[in-house]
Structure of Ketosteroid isomerase:
Amino acid sequence: MTNLEIVKSTYEGENSEENGKALAAHAADNIQWTEAKGFPYGGTYTGLEEITKNVFSRLGSEWIDYKFIPEDYVASDDKVVAFGNYTGINKETNKPLSVRVTHIWHLKDGKIIKFEQFVDSKTVLDTMK
């Protein structure tokens, strides 16, 4: 698989479980995952266990149908940039979310070694209030 195909596989499966399996299959053991400063799950996490605990489990418990909808990708060497929108409904406020986002993926030898998120955190936080 190309780096672009690897990244696409983490977004474009039939459901979030399939996307998660693709991420697990292609993640380096010490993958570094950075959620934007100010984002509700902001910080850098190492390894899938930390990422799942601090990001994916929280997204699943705090949102209804939260997802990233990719609009396009740009691939260059060992980097892939995906941009699009986050959507979902916050369970506590019942407010819908729609916000632009960019993800930068770094890969080495067919493994995802780093992920970085850029998002308007204020829009997300306002949806949660």
